[in-house]
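Hi there, hope your week has been kind to you so far. Please have a think about how the structure follows from the sequence. I've dropped the whole record in just underneath, so have a look:

_____
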Amino acid sequence: MTAKIRERIKEIRETLGISQRDFAKRIFISQSLLGDIELGNRNINDRTIQLISTEFNVNKEWLLNGKGTIFAAPPPDLQLEKLIETYKQLDKPLRDYLLDQARGLLKINKEMAKRDH
């Protein structure tokens, strides 16, 4: 593996603002293996390259050769994904409560934006 691929893997992680632990978990490898890959102590296999490309919408050509843009599509919104997972685990009354709170926060946010302009 070239130093460039391992650097690009780290760049993907940092661009997404995701820890090694969370990144590794999403591509079904251990954090220690990911750390070894990023340090150049272990090679990355084709399966892991494909998983990175698929899971994070990474342009495979960019990952392998540095050509093109990092993302083939807009990068995933990891915070939104966590919020959705949390929402799905709530009972209906708590889901309704969460939506009401979110609407209230949106209203406050709009009012603050009006004051700032």
About this structure: The CA atoms of residues 19 and 50 lie 19 Å apart. The chain has seven helices and no strands. The chain has a mean pLDDT of 91. Residues 78-116 form one domain.
